[in-house]
Amino acid sequence: MGEELETSTNYAIAVARPWRRRATVLLILVALLVGVGWYFTTLLAPRRPGAPAVEVTIPPGTSSAAIATSLAEKGLIRSPLAFRVVALAQGVDKQLKSGSYLISPGWPLPAITSLLASGKVRDVEFTIPEGYTVRQIAALLQQKGLVREEDFLKAAAMDYPFDFLQGLPPGPEHVQGFLFPDTYRVAPGTPAREIVLMMLNRFNQVYQELAPQKDPSLEFNTRQIVTLASIVEREAKVDSERPLIAGVFINRLRRGMRLESCATVEYLLPAPKAVLSYQDLQIDSPYNTYRVEGLPPAPIAEPGRASLLAVLKPAQTDYLYFVAKPDGSHYFSSTLAEHNQATARYETGKGS
Question: How high is the pLDDT of residue 293?
Fold first, then answer.
């Protein structure tokens, strides 16, 4: 009888052991699943709840893996892998669209993948600073992801239906001076020609507003006014001095004197220089106003509203010279002797 009881007990233990092992394994699996689920839920959660949205530009042809990496580097998502898993689960991993988006690190991951799949891009805002050249504008627009630099320069060289562009030199600089410096908003994918046309229209609008204030004694046409305004733009650092600088140049032109503007020489150099050398002043170019009389053949930069108005309404003085002071303002003179003394005093070598 005892032997039968012992045998029965041993059998019960033998049967129970596999179930215990299975229960242990099951508990471990459940714990792992709970842990993985918790971890993945964490990855899906917002990176920084309540944080403001930032602009993100996705170039055409960017893979979902590259997009995931970029968003992680910008601190918008927690995990590139989680991004790709969610995109796969949503069936949009091959449907993420290029463009500029406003994305907040306060959004959950599925919301971000859904936005990129929807293609609901935002307009891109960009600002053209006063004094920029057409090539600087092209570089800025490429940096913004709007158009390639070479495409913008090709568009700049095209013909446009504006009288003020007639007679200007061909090439990308054909529109230089007339791409009004301002803040613009365009949709991603906007053709370069449309962007150029938008800037030209803006110039035309602003110029028509300012033109009625033109001094009746001013004998310049629109191209000449814009060309001189572009020089004033590059010379002036203090807004209140723009009419004075414009007045100096107009006085010199009326007397048959060369403009001798350092800005026109700097325009010919590959990079700006603090002080121009004698060799710089000898550069053989129609833009070098130390060598040629009159205005350059075209504007050297994009003048803003203040510089255009300064030329339209120049200060009425007898000044013929100016030299830059260390603080960026200028000392104005009526005689060469006084100008030479000022130049020696400030030792900048700048100005006319």
Answer: 94
